[in-house]
Amino acid sequence: MPTTVKITVRQMMIIIIMFTIGTTILVAPSTMAQASGQDAWISASVGVLVGLCIGWLYASIGMLYPGHNLLQIHELILGKWIGKLVSLLFVLTMLLFCSQVLYYIGNFLATQFFRVPLSSF
């Protein structure tokens, strides 16, 4: 029987904060400034509100199904096959986003601190 590892609320909060800081500092400013110009503050405000709403939604769903993880909740709400498909898409999307943030951090460190030319990548 596989053992389950549970993280505390504090550990999850630290993971979310680090992921958010990594994305916000390295990706968001240049992308928002390029897309919306001087109205980037509006995009940032809307993004924060949407993020808070999604966080509230996940917290509410988690309280409705105590003792279940997100992937189990997908199956309970959407059924076996659609729930597994949504869970797979969720996991793949998170892997993609995490790998992008890791690339951005590595690229930032290499160009700003190590002074490695970009042509070496």
Q: How would you describe this protein?
A:
There is one protein chain. The protein has 121 residues and is mainly α. Helices cover 78% and strands 0% of the residues. It contains 5 helices and no strands. It is globular and about 45 Å long. The mean pLDDT is 79.
Note the main attributes of this structure.
single chain, 121 residues, mainly alpha, globular
Structural class: mainly alpha
Low-confidence stretches: none
Q: Could you describe the largest sheet, including whether it forms a barrel? A: none
The number of helical segments is: 5
Percent in strands? under 5%
Distance between the termini: 43 Å
**Per the principal axes of the C-alpha atoms, what is the gross shape?**
globular
Order of helices and strands: HHHHH
What oligomeric state best describes the polypeptide chains here? single chain
